Structure formats: C-alpha cells, structure tokens
Amino acid sequence: MRLFIRLLAAYNVLVALAVTVKSVFDVPQPDWELLSWLMAPAVVISLAAAYWFKQRFDADSENAGDTVRFLDVNVHFYAAAILFVGYGFQWSAYLNDLAWGRSGLSNTGSLWIYVDTLVIIVATVMGVRIWNAAGKM
Fold it and tell me: Which of 14, 23, 39, 41 measures 20 to 30 Å from 8, CA to CA?
C-alpha cells in the first residue's frame, strides 16, 4: 500500500514538473492537450488527499487549538477544491468547443493559465505531503 501511495505522490509531482516546464520554457512537446489529460488524475488525487488530511485533522481532538495547523489544512483543501472546479470548468469548455467543431480555444481559454498555476502549486504540495504521509504508515 505504501508503494501505491508513493506512486500517486510521485505522479502528482511529475505532472506539476511537466506543467512547470511547459509553462516556463514553452517546450513544443508534450502539447497542452496531452498535459490536460495528465492533469486530470493529479487534480483528483490532490483533492482526495487534501480531503483526507482535512478529515484526519478534524478527527484528532488534540489539534483543537492549533490555529496554524487548522489554516494549513483548510487552505490546502479549499485550494484543491478551487482547482477541481476550475479545471472541470475549463476542461468541459474545451470539450464543448471540440464537440462543436471549433478550434478548442473558446473565450474561456485564457483561464487555463490560472488552472495551470494552481496545478503547479497544489499538485506539488499535495504530492510532497502524500509522500511524507506514506513514509509514516
């Protein structure tokens, strides 16, 4: 089980690294369509992990007065939730454009930069946290 969890963590970090390299250096390969497909599992993994960390924090009664940990867990959870909603909105707009025979670049195409930035931040942070949590199992 530890190996599987570490593979999920590594996947998240590798996707974040690929999106970072593509965003910063604008390398020709892989193209954004492939990266969008690769980002989907990373977004879901990040949201599931953030929810798990939040549930684990809420269940532990010793953390009741720890404001810093409360903010840490909740900020990452809500960032992952915003990423999930934003990615879902952008991906559905992209698929809708393809279904109607348009170029795939609708008027919402400029919002991808925000989704990409959130993927880089949230997937990296959640990947590292998942990796560390797997080591404590």
Answer: 23
Centroid of chain to Cα 20? 13
* 16 vs 136, residue with greater confidence: 16
How far is CA 52 from each of CA 15, 16, 59, 61, 124, rounded to the nearest angstrom? 21, 20, 11, 16, 16
Contacts of 18 (CB under 8 A, 6+ apart): 30, 35, 38
Return the pLDDT at 108.
63
Whole-angstrom Cα distance, residue 11 to residue 2? 14
Report the distance separating Cα 33 and Cα 64, nearest Å: 44
Distances (CA, A) of 65 to 23, 57, 61, 70, 87: 40, 11, 9, 8, 34
CA distances from 40 to 6, 56, 123, 135 (A): 18, 24, 11, 25
As a whole number of angstroms, the distance between CA 91 and CA 33 comes to: 10
CA end-to-end distance (rounded Å), the chain: 9
Cβ(89)–Cβ(108) under 8 Å?
A: yes
